């Protein structure tokens, strides 16, 4: 399993964000694990969201910019199957040690993951609209 972990870490790249002595374990996990994974998987997340929006009768594409922001947030928070699919795309790039840490504090990390993903998608609205 060490080979898998090594490959996963190489694929993800470096830590993103600042880690200090005052950083909580969740902040450290966020910056060392979640941010690099979200960056690595960014193009996939955009395509998955576009596909989701199309399958939902293209409603998203006719909304105002404000409503599109709300739509992104609502879909990720309320559609459990979709949210779990997104979560799986993130967890798949955890090392075994990271997964062990994740299951220890999964509730807090799930909130962080989804909030970060929501903000990432909102900030890339132009790519989603194409």
TrEMBL record:
Q: What is this protein called?
A: Glyoxalase
Protein species of origin:
Flavobacterium sangjuense
């Amino acid at each position: 399993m060490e080979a898998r972990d090594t490959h996963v870490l190489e694929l993800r790249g470096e830590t993103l964000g600042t880690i200090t002595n005052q950083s909580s374990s969740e902040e450290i996990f966020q910056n060392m694990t979640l941010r690099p994974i979200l960056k690595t998987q960014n193009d996939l997340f955009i395509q998955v969201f576009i596909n989701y929006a199309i399958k939902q009768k293209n409603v998203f594409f006719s909304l105002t910019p404000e409503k599109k922001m709300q739509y992104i947030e609502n879909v990720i928070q309320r559609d459990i199957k979709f949210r779990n699919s997104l979560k799986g795309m993130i967890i798949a790039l955890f090392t075994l040690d990271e997964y062990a840490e994740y299951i220890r504090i999964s509730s807090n990390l799930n909130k962080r993951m989804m909030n970060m993903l929501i903000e990432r998608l909102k900030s890339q609205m132009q790519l989603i609209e194409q």
